[in-house]
Amino acid sequence: MPIPKAAGERPAGRASLIEKSFDILEAVVGRAQPSSLAQITTDVGLPKATVHRTIAALERAGLLMRVPGSRLYTAGDRMVDLALRGLCAADHQGACRRVLDDLAGTLGETAALGVVANGVLVGVLGSAVPPATQGLIAEPLGRAPLHCSSGGKVLLAHMPPGQRALYLAASGLPRLTPRTITDRAALEAALGRIRERGFASDDEECQEGVVCVAAPVRDRQERVVAALYVVAVAARTPLARLIARIDAVERAARRISRVLAGGAATPCERTGDPRPADLAV
User: Fold this and answer.
1) Are residues 96 and 207 in the same domain?
2) What digits encode the pLDDT tens for the residues 1-59?
3) Do 157 and 236 fall within a single domain?
4) Residue 3 lies inside a defined structural domain of this protein
5) I need a labelling partner for 48 at 20 to 30 A (CA). Which of 64, 160, 189, 216 fits?
6) Does residue 170 contact residue 178 with C-beta atoms inside 8 Å?
7) Residue 1 placed within a domain
8) Rounded to whole angstroms, how far apart are CA atoms 240 and 246?
């Protein structure tokens, strides 16, 4: 459903370009599925040519994107990044950061929240880095390729198939370490396993000597919008030890999902299922 407008929200007269742009963005993100030009035009009540020109500008800005192989539009990487950053910035009580700090304290490792922006994983919020790992791992709020980072693989696994195919074709799957998966078929198989078991891992695939695990963060429509990942030094914390504590990571991801959903329980929590239904095995 598109987001309804409040009565008297806009003064009389012609809408500015910024107002038109926001109307279109709200119409697209207010629907659970990608929108067609006709649907957007109906929702915003603007001339079709105006909507088409504005969408083109929003595409160039990365705020909207066309679903590969279709004429449907959805939120772009930059829009998702801005939304998550805005939610974190507006988190006056620090609920998301408290979740990350609690998880970091439980595991003794660094925890962070990341989103896809411009085709890479970008960390938007993180816990403090434990003294024992300072200087040994890359900045958790930096950028990492999707195909070899645990958070990136979670987000890649849950992308619409057409969008994922476009990324895989464009990225070239560069090798960062001897363990990086660079074969597309092998990566697709790994992403399938991630969807089945509900979490992803990085066994020194992105940075030698560093291991990670990640779980999906979902919005109130159960769409994966971010990844919660934990980063550790392999010599101090082997990957097997992180995976053994994945339940704590998944619980933290569900807590952040509740925060981003405005405190509402997700469908899996309402039914008592510890994981979303599409990940149950």
Assistant:
1) yes
2) 444 444 444 444 456 888 889 999 988 877 657 789 999 999 999 999 999 999 999 99
3) yes
4) no
5) 160
6) no
7) no
8) 10
pTM of the model: 0.69
Is residue 104 a contact partner of residue 128, using CB atoms and an 8 Å limit? yes
Q: pLDDT tens digits for 61-90? A: 888 988 777 788 888 878 877 776 676 666
Segments forming the whole domain that contains residue 46:
17-75
- For the chain, the domain total comes to 2
Residue entry with tokens 């899996």: 268
* Poorest-pLDDT segment among 96-100, 156-160, 247-251, 277-281: 277-281
- To 5 degrees, how large is the angle CA 16–CA 18–CA 21? 110
Rounded CA-CA distance 264/258 in Å is 6
Residue 13 identity: G
For residues 25 and 138, membership in a common domain is answered with: no
Task: Give the domain-ending residue among 75, 109, 144.
Answer: 75
- List the one residue out of 103, 87, 112 whose CA is nearest residue 263: 87
* Residue 140 sits in the same domain as residue 41: no
Q: Is residue 107 part of a domain?
A: yes
CATH number at residue 266: 3.30.450.40
